[in-house]
Amino acid sequence: AYLTVSIEPLPPVVVGDAVTLKCNFKTDGKMREIVWYRVTDGGTIKQKIFTFDAMFSTNFSQMENYRKREDLVYQSTVRLPEVRISDNGPYECHVGIYDRATREKVVLASGNVFLNVMAPPTSISVLAADTPAPFSRYQAQNFTLVCVVSGGKPAPLVYFKRDGEPIEATPLPEPPAGASSWAPRNLLHRDLDDTKVPKSLAAEGELGMGNPFPTADPPRGLAAERDSVTESIPETVVSREFPRWVHMAEPIYYFRHTHAPVSDGTVEARATLTWTLNPQIDNEALFSCEVKHPALSMPMQSEVTLVAPKGPKITMTPTRARVGDTVRILVQGFQNEVFPEPLFTWTRVGSRLLDGSAEHDGKELVLERVPAELNGSMYRCTAQNPLGSTDTHTRLIVFENPNIPRGPEDSNGSLPGHRGFRFVLALTLTVILELT
């Protein structure tokens, strides 16, 4: 007797699909058994998922009277109604028949197939690296967008667009082992601020004895091996919100793509886009991260618009502060959608904060047990991100607190407790004098 077994190959399937594994075999012998296995741990473990034993089945009882000397063609199928990522891997079909010459001898053969289960990405998000970050109009700054794509298998193809147009970026090498998978390389190594050039050098340039500012075409990138160029601009046309340096050419973008396996069998992909930010042309620019994946019928995308903060909305509680109250000054939002996350800095105009510090970082400023001396004090909130900054002022008005008694002794700063002590002491002395 002879036996040949083969399993029909399967194309990649998507999570949730129904899959049928088909095992075809030819033999001229009598059926003994069919066993399906799922192979795991690199082939060291075989999990039995289906068994057909002809000795205890009536489905093939008619084969007892089958005497023709010709091949018998069979097919065994196993159906997985909703495949999961955990179903990914190899499967084997083992078939056993009785030899035609003797009923005691069993002939075995097997076939195998690999089930490739794909999973579309479940989430995509775009964020800014190193935020919140300050705004500097005196120094060019690198800026990095990070696109995080999770839940996909295999790793997706990730790319960036600006205002709907694909970005041609210079690829960066993989980061070394142990380093952050998406931390941008520092592409900027020198200060492009012309205001920090010593006046003596600037004077020499004006007199023709040396030009500290190159006049050649500026570079297209800010890699370490390239020179920097600064254009001199009249002070009268420089806005407070914009830097003193200007790029004459289109920015050079640097791109890095990494992926890391997750315990559930999926892959987390991170793509970074780094360039030298120019607030004059990048403010209100629309950047999108798009993902192509064989399990998706159309690209998946997430987009952000780079916007500087404008018109902070500040609230103060309580609205009518009294001496001894705890006052909270909070930034609730802006007149526009801001990206990336701003950095908030609080200062007191003309003096230090209540705790003695020069400034406080965060969206909220808390003043514990405000004294009457803070009445009329002005507080400034500076909100800034790499695209620009804005200042907002608010004045604190402190009213008298009727729950705190006042008297002549309070005028010199004495506490109410001290006033009560003095009253008791005076009363005690009066009683002693009357007794004597």
Topology:
Elements: E1 3-7, E2 13-14, E3 19-27, E4 30-40, E5 45-53, E6 72-80, E7 89-98, E8 106-115, E9 117-118, E10 123-128, E11 141-152, E12 157-162, E13 165-166, E14 169-171, H1 199-206, E15 253-261, E16 267-277, H2 279-282, E17 286-292, E18 300-305, E19 313-317, E20 321-322, E21 327-333, E22 343-348, E23 360-361, E24 364-367, E25 378-385, E26 388-395, E27 398-399, H3 416-435
Parallel strand pairs: 2-9, 14-15, 20-27
Antiparallel strand pairs: 1-3, 3-6, 4-5, 4-7, 7-8, 10-11, 11-16, 12-13, 12-17, 15-16, 17-18, 19-21, 21-24, 22-23, 22-25, 25-26
Describe the model:
It comes from Vidua macroura. This is Immunoglobulin superfamily member 21. Keywords: Cell membrane, Disulfide bond, Glycoprotein, GPI-anchor, Immunoglobulin domain, Lipoprotein, Membrane, Postsynaptic cell membrane, Repeat, Signal, Synapse. The chain is mostly beta strands and 436 residues long. The protein has 3 domains: 3-118, Immunoglobulin-like (Sandwich); 119-172 and 252-306, Sandwich (Immunoglobulin-like), CATH 2.60.40.10; 313-399, Sandwich (Immunoglobulin-like). It is 7% helix and 40% strand. It contains 3 helices and 27 strands. The protein has helices at residues 199-206, 279-282, 416-435, and strands at residues 3-7, 13-14, 19-27, 30-40, 45-53, 72-80, 89-98, 106-115, 117-118, 123-128, 141-152, 157-162, 165-166, 169-171, 253-261, 267-277, 286-292, 300-305, 313-317, 321-322, 327-333, 343-348, 360-361, 364-367, 378-385, 388-395, 398-399. The strands form 8 sheets. The protein has a 5-stranded mixed β-sheet, with no helix packed on it. A hairpin with a 2-residue loop joins strand 12 (157-162) and strand 13 (165-166). The protein is elongated. The chain starts with a strand and ends with a helix. Residues 58-71, 176-242 and 409-436 have low confidence and may be disordered.
